[in-house]
């Protein structure tokens, strides 16, 4: 997939590569599905002089993207980095969802930054920068990716061959990866209304309904539980954004424009200040996900 938007970051990396002035460690942070992973693969293709469909078989490229990252995974990666590059230039390690590193894994990784391997470039990818160790952040170059403009998404979708590109521009929320996901799985478009209904019940329903939904959400288990909950919070923030757009009649289209009737209904339940405050509290909740907090208790306190 092509890189959409964030031209300043791509230009910066391209010039650094041409001038042989790339840093040893980068952190690509920003919202999900905006092209961070694709940008990491693009710079790897450039440095290793290969193409996309051969990158993952290149012996000097390693990408880690499992749900959780333990110390043994980092030890393996450190050992791999210590070996001389097969192609002679450098080795490139990409760690997707870097915030999923366990404490012991993060500490082991930190030692690598303190004693860097020669001819190695490391790229950490995360949508939750605050969950990385401050010492890892301070030893890395942080590049903040943003959502793409509507024009950029529209042009990308036209080139992608989307039949109804305009429809998906708003639904994408400026995220090219999300646009492709919706095109390839149209069922997800209809699921958004059910999720907005859940948002309404969670924050505006009767207390039995509120606590029932909070309990259901809190039962999300498994290695990627925090990530799934973070995705829930991101969705709620998008709903709040749409509600505020409608309240203030701003010159922008809601992401969930097909559900404007439901959004307007929710909008009439509380003043704008309530939704703005709710958004701030949700952002704070997402930041706290990396800590060992009782998510169910925190969510219940939010909905009371």
Commentary on this structure:
This protein is globular. 57% of the residues lie in helices and 8% in strands. The protein has helices at residues 7-18, 36-48, 52-55, 71-82, 103-114, 134-138, 150-160, 165-172, 176-184, 187-204, 207-218, 225-248, 260-267, 272-288, 295-303; strands spanning 25-29, 61-64, 91-95, 120-126, 141-144. Helix 10 (187-204) packs across helix 11. It is α/β, with parallel strands linked by helices. The chain has 2 domains: 7-144, P-loop containing nucleotide triphosphate hydrolases (Rossmann fold); 186-303, Zinc Finger, Delta Prime, domain 3 (Up-down Bundle). It has a 5-stranded parallel sheet, with helices on one face. The chain contains 15 helices and 5 strands. The model has no long low-confidence stretch (mean pLDDT 87). 29% of the residues are buried.
Which structural traits does this protein have?
304 residues; alpha/beta; Zinc Finger, Delta Prime, domain 3; 2 domains; five-stranded parallel β-sheet; 8% strand
Taken together, the total number of domains comes to: 2
Side by side, the strands of the main sheet go 2-3-4-1-5
CATH topology (level 3) name of the largest domain: Rossmann fold
End-to-end distance: 44 Å
Q: Please write the CATH class name of the largest domain.
A: Alpha Beta
- Write down how many β-strands occur, each being a DSSP E stretch of 2 or more residues: 5
Give the overall shape, derived from the CA principal axes. Answer: globular
Mind telling me which CATH architecture of the largest domain this is? Answer: 3-Layer(aba) Sandwich
Sheet-strand content, in percent, reads 5-15%
What is the helix fraction of residues, given as a range?
Answer: 55-70%
Assign the CATH superfamily of the largest domain: P-loop containing nucleotide triphosphate hydrolases
Radius of gyration, whole Å: 21 Å
Class inferred from helices and paired strands: alpha/beta
Mean pLDDT, rounded to whole units?
87
Order of helices and strands: HEHHEHEHEHEHHHHHHHHH
Low-confidence stretches: none
